[in-house]
Design a protein that fits this description.
TPR-like_helical_dom_sf; Beta-barrel_YaiO; Porin; 14-stranded antiparallel beta barrel; 2 domains; alpha+beta; about 375 residues; signal; TPR repeat; Serine Threonine Protein Phosphatase 5, Tetratricopeptide repeat; about 30% helix
Length: about 375
């Protein structure tokens, strides 16, 4: 039956207030969801609270309210809202996944695994459920195996009469119960017939990192260098899609002078399945000359344990001991064996003086 005959029968004036009241919760829900996707969590929660109060039997409203609370790090309220949504719709997969994410955000991977089980037991688990399962498995491994060992070796062929170059790196780190990771690395570089040994120590957590290193009697690596970075909050821009902003900076003293850099970074992601990163590279080189460029990186999940990557850069760089313009294309594959990850990659670099082709093999292991 259409709405207009009802209005005619009951009288337009008497029904108008009731119609307005019925529409208000819908408007609050739509507005709250829009604000949540825009990253305005506090405002979203206020609108969704009004919607939930007006329509307490709507599981979608409670789900979005829980997600808004979670984005504002109000995890107790997020759990309570999602529990209401689950009570209203026990088989609602999005609610099951959201509850598992909350537990993972709080650092309780075991509880996240338990909450996700109903979503995984569905006849056809969604891609989001599968990706979250892998994230939880990785978090459980990290908790059980706080140590990480990294090793890599690269071999590069340089055009013209220049000799080939070799780079080898060893690193060891430990993740503390506080969430801070402490570690150190040693890098051996052999190029142009000369050798440098670069040593670095670092500390990192979810918010950023700080590293200090140097190469005694350096020929082309920094004599001393400081690196630091900040990682911003992930903003939800659409269902499953997030954007994260960051900033990396460094100061390095080379034999030829000081080089300073600042790199704003933006990363678009859909879970762990797809990432696109853009980096604006700003450099004040050893001659105090400003240079800039950019780098792009694309990564995607080819299979549950296999990941591929592509990259392109057109920017200044100083790894050869002097700042020069560089264009480079790269590609790689990574396979996760569980406690160990193996990566293989290649790059083609173009500089004014020569081209360079590099092949890299790397292994990471947790224990």
């Amino acid at each position: 039956m259409s709405r207009m005959p009802l209005v005619a029968a009951a009288g337009l004036l008497s029904l108008a207030p009731a119609v307005a009241l019925a529409q208000a919760p819908v408007d609050d829900f739509a507005r709250g969801r829009e604000l949540r996707l825009a990253g305005r969590s506090a405002e979203a929660a206020e609108a969704l609270e009004r919607a939930a109060s007006a329509q307490p039997q709507d599981a979608d409203i409670w789900l979005n309210l829980g997600l808004a609370y979670a984005a504002a790090k109000r995890f107790d309220k997020a759990d309570a809202a999602l529990d209401r949504a689950l009570a209203l719709a026990p088989s609602y997969t999005d609610v099951q996944i959201a509850r598992a994410r909350i537990a993972l955000f709080r650092g309780d991977a075991a509880e996240a695994e338990r909450r996700l089980q109903p979503a995984l037991q569905a006849q056809a688990p969604t891609p989001d459920a599968v990706q979250l399962r892998d994230q939880i498995a990785a978090a459980l491994r990290e908790g059980e195996m706080p140590w990480r060992f990294d090793a890599s070796v690269s071999r590069a062929r340089v055009s013209g009469p220049l000799p080939d170059s070799t780079l080898a790196t060893l690193a060891l780190s430990r993740r503390l119960t506080s969430g801070v990771t402490l570690g150190g690395s040693t890098e051996y570089v052999r190029q142009f017939g000369r050798t440098d040994l670069y040593v670095e120590g670092f500390a990192a957590n979810r918010l950023g990192y700080l590293a200090l290193g140097g190469a005694p009697d350096a020929d082309f690596r920094p004599e001393i260098a400081v690196r630091a970075g900040l990682a911003g909050k992930r903003w939800s821009i659409s269902e499953g899609w997030t954007v994260q902003l960051g900033l990396d900076g460094s100061w390095a003293r080379y034999p030829v002078g000081d080089v300073r850099s600042l790199h704003p970074v933006a990363t678009l992601a859909r879970g762990e399945g797809f990432t696109l990163q853009a980096r604006w590279i700003n450099v004040l080189d050893e001659q105090d000359e400003y240079r800039d460029g950019y780098a792009l990186g694309l990564g995607w999940q080819v299979a549950p344990r296999l990941r591929a990557s592509l990259g392109w850069a057109d920017a200044p760089e100083s790894t050869q001991g002097v700042t020069t313009p560089l264009q480079a294309v790269s590609a790689g594959l990574q396979y996760d064996f569980g406690s160990a990850v193996v990566r293989i990659g290649g790059a083609h670099e173009m500089r004014p003086a020569y081209d360079r082709d590099e092949l890299t093999l790397a292994v990471s292991r947790r224990f």
